[in-house]
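[job 4471] stage=fold_predict status=RUNNING
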Amino acid sequence: MKSPAWVLQKAIYAKLKSSLSVEVYDHVDNEAVFPFVAIGEDTAVDFSAKSEPGQEVTHTIHVYSRWSGMKETKDIMDQVIRALTGDRELDLGDEFRIVLSRLDSVNSFREDENTRHSVVRMRYLIEEVL
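[job 4471] inference complete, writing structure tokens
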């Protein structure tokens, strides 16, 4: 069984880069200008059938803002959700296919006095194409 983790992350990054009005990072350095989106953590568990290997992958996307309230963070979070749900397919190439994708959870909070942070967690069932 192959891991779809990198292929999925590249597809999510490409979709967000082409869909959002803010910068999208895989690695955030100290020079990043707020607001921005950062590709986050993922987890995977086996969900193979007898004849088809597959994984259930959850992927986290972080939204950061320095707006005085939560509006900017939540507006960008909405853009992320719209980009990754609905009729928009992520391109995983020839090795994998997404069987199911859905929004898993959303969490918004004040990270510190100046920074607002939203976390979008997506869930994907991915089969390896044999």
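[job 4471] summary: The longest strand covers residues 96-110.
[job 4471] exit 0
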